[in-house]
């Protein structure tokens, strides 16, 4: 009889419930083959659940779970390519009637009897440092049998096997692809990986075609898949050289073989294998309750997330993936508090996954939340005003670099770095804008908007100070010995009043060689009277931090000779000796 008591996994739903074996010996093989082909085609078109048939491997045997219509002849032909192997399978499995196999039982087939072809895996994603046989990995590269893969402290790699199985390798992992083949005629995978250091997470045969052999070996245990998603940690030796390996099963069933124990581990459970070879099964910790996860789009490559602490947790495994199946990790970290700072987030949809780690260092059930990251169109590069700069005038002129793909820009100016109170804002198609502002301390930022109206991230806030411009200057008196000049000191808050003024007099408008250059702490100055001629005068503010404003526009003046009396005193008035011009 057929060995019973096999594991029926979540993928064990039959897609052939209406198929029955023909009892006439001469027609059996033909009828079942035709029926099988028809059902397989229907299953593909209807996107039915995985076949129950291929059910993974157990040691040196491949397991086929019997479905309605299966005969031992068909099983032998499908997996070995030879119908006459049925006799060997009959003896091995103690089958009473090769035409009537009890549904749900398992037929063992020696792996050595199944022909295979050499295969390769495709690298799907790479983050950080990762290599194969010493060569840096890149998406699209192929990984062959016997390759050694290694990730650095920031390395994350995902590769895909021919049957669609995805294998995710975390940081600080070293493993060898011991076997990478495909069962000839079925497309089922035949994969064995040896993890020497670090861990691995797999999502096996997601396409619903069933499982061939998929084994992960560590120094302490061997795990075999029955159609599942699970993680393995090879563990690290302690100071005494003791080592423990662990596995957590998220979907389906895993067979674990250790030196002194063998366990079937179902979804929601984990197993720890100690240095003595004993295996203990534990219930996975509950998924954390995510309490601080951004619901709105994240306009940055980093974000803060948080969750409710889980009783019994000694830490948390946090991952972010770019695909909803959660196989292409872009961020991974183990943290102790119930919070994490995510970094390196890519543009587009992403998926947060958090698991509580128990005292056996087995990660528990996953809490999952979608994230939306918008990094495009990118933030413009801000030009003016520069950070912590001072602008003199009544108008702030904002300038930024144009961004490819930006249809327009949105700018904001506020009196606080959080932009809670806006003084000016708007949209423009230009790479700049001018805004009238009162003297004060301001922050500004800008973002790009694409042709569809989707905005990208804001630029970093830029702090600047706007102060009044230098006042206009005029000559108010010429007494023959000095020119008295004055400028208007505008009413302004004490915090923005200048410390002093700088006054210059020159005989040419470029002020290359000023004739007079004085620091004055009031709004008037007496300059020594120069000889008759054309001169220019200007003034600048000296701020409290020692910086200076731009000079005012030069004021042109004409100085004339005075008529003097017998004592040498000038005769006439100021208005007759000085002429002011533009």
The fraction of residues assigned to DSSP E strands is: over 45%
Please state the structural category: mainly beta
Mean pLDDT: 85
Output the number of helix runs. 4
The biggest beta sheet is recorded as:
10 strands, mixed
Radius of gyration of CA atoms, rounded to a whole number: 40 Å
Separation of the first and last Cα atoms:
115 Å
> Count the strands?
48
The amount of helix comes to under 10%
Uncertain spans, ≥5 residues at pLDDT below 50? 1-51
Describe the structure in brief.
Residues 62-109 form the LysM domain. Pfam families: FecR, LysM. The protein has 582 residues and is mainly beta.
Describe this structure in words.
The chain has 4 helices and 48 strands. The N and C termini lie far apart (115 Å). The model is unreliable at 1-51 (pLDDT under 50). The protein is rod-shaped. The strands form 10 sheets. Strands 4, 6, 7, 9, 12, 13, 15, 16, 19 and 20 form a 10-stranded mixed sheet that branches. Strands 8-5-10-11-14-17-18-21-22 form a 9-stranded antiparallel sheet, with no helix packed on it. It has 582 residues and is mostly beta strands. InterPro entries: FecR, Ig-like_fold, LysM, LysM_dom_sf, UCP029644.
What is the fold's blueprint, element by element?
Layout: H1 25-46, E1 54-58, E2 61-65, H2 72-80, H3 86-93, E3 106-110, E4 116-118, E5 120-127, E6 130-132, E7 135-136, E8 142-144, E9 148-151, E10 156-160, E11 166-169, E12 174-183, E13 189-197, E14 199-203, E15 213-217, E16 221-225, E17 229-233, E18 245-251, E19 253-258, E20 262-266, E21 269-273, E22 279-283, E23 290-292, E24 303-307, E25 315-321, E26 329-335, E27 339-342, E28 348-357, E29 363-373, E30 382-384, E31 389-392, E32 395-400, E33 408-414, E34 422-428, E35 432-436, E36 440-449, E37 455-458, E38 462-467, E39 473-478, E40 482-487, E41 500-506, E42 516-520, E43 524-528, E44 533-542, E45 555-559, E46 563-564, E47 570-571, H4 574-577, E48 578-581
Parallel strand pairs: 13-15, 31-38
Antiparallel strand pairs: 1-2, 2-3, 4-12, 5-8, 5-10, 6-7, 6-9, 9-12, 10-11, 11-14, 12-13, 14-17, 15-16, 16-19, 17-18, 18-21, 19-20, 21-22, 23-24, 24-27, 25-26, 25-28, 28-29, 30-32, 32-35, 33-34, 33-36, 36-37, 36-38, 39-40, 40-43, 41-42, 41-44, 44-45, 45-48, 46-47
């Amino acid at each position: 009889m057929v060995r019973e008591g096999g594991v029926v996994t979540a993928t064990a739903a039959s897609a052939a419930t209406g198929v029955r074996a023909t009892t006439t010996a001469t027609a059996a093989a033909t009828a079942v083959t035709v029926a099988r082909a028809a059902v397989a085609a229907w299953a593909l078109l209807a996107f039915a659940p995985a076949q129950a048939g291929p059910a993974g491997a157990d040691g040196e045997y491949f397991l086929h779970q019997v479905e309605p219509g299966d005969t031992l002849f068909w099983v032998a032909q499908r997996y070995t390519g030879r119908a006459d192997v049925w006799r060997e399978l009959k003896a091995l499995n103690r089958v009473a009637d090769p035409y009537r196999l009890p549904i749900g039982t398992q037929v063992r087939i020696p792996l050595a009897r199944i022909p295979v072809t050499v295969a390769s895996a495709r690298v799907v994603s790479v983050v950080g440092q990762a290599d194969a046989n010493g060569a840096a990995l890149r998406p699209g590269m192929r990984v062959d049998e016997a390759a050694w893969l290694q990730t650095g402290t920031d390395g994350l790699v995902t590769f895909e096997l021919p049957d669609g199985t995805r294998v995710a390798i975390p940081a600080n992992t070293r493993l060898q692809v011991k076997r990478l083949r495909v069962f000839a005629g079925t497309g089922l995978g035949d994969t064995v990986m040896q993890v020497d250091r670090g861990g691995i997470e797999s999502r096996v045969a997601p396409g619903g075609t069933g499982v061939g052999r998929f084994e992960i070996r560590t120094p302490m245990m061997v795990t075999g898949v029955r159609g599942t998603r699970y993680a393995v940690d090879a563990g690290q030796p302690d100071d005494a050289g003791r080592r423990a390996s662990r596995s957590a099963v998220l979907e389906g069933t895993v067979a674990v073989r250790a030196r002194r124990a063998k366990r079937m581990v179902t979804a929601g459970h984990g197993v720890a294998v100690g240095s003595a070879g004993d295996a203990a099964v534990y219930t996975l910790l509950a998924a954390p309750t995510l309490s601080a996860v951004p619901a709105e789009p994240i306009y940055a490559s980093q974000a803060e997330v948080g969750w409710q602490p889980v009783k019994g947790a000694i830490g948390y495994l946090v991952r972010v993936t770019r695909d909803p199946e959660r196989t292409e990790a872009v961020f991974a970290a183990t943290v102790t508090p119930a919070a994490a700072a995510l970094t390196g987030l890519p543009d587009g949809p992403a998926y947060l996954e958090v698991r509580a780690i128990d005292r056996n260092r087995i990660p528990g059930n996953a809490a999952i939340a979608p994230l939306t990251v918008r990094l495009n169109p990118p933030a413009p590069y801000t030009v003016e005003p520069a950070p912590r700069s001072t602008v003199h005038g009544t108008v702030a002129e904002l300038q930024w670099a144009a961004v490819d793909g930006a249809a327009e820009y949105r700018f904001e100016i506020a009196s606080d770095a959080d932009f809670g109170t806006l003084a000016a804002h708007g949209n423009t198609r230009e790479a700049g804008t001018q805004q009238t502002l009162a003297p004060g301390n301001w922050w500004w930022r800008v973002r790009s908007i694409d042709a569809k109206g989707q905005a990208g991230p804001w630029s970093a806030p830029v702090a600047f100070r706007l102060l009044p411009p230098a006042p206009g200057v005029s000559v108010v008196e010429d007494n023959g010995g000095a020119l008295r000049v004055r400028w208007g000191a505008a009413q302004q808050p004490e915090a923005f009043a200048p410390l002093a003024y700088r006054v210059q007099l020159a005989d040419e408008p470029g002020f290359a060689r000023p004739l007079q250059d004085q620091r004055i702490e009031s709004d008037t100055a007496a300059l020594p009277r120069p000889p008759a001629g054309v001169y220019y005068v200007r003034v600048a503010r000296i701020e409290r931090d020692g910086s200076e404003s731009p000079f005012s526009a030069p004021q042109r003046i004409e100085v004339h000779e005075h008529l003097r009396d017998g004592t040498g005193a000038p005769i006439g008035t100021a208005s007759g000796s000085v002429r002011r011009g533009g």
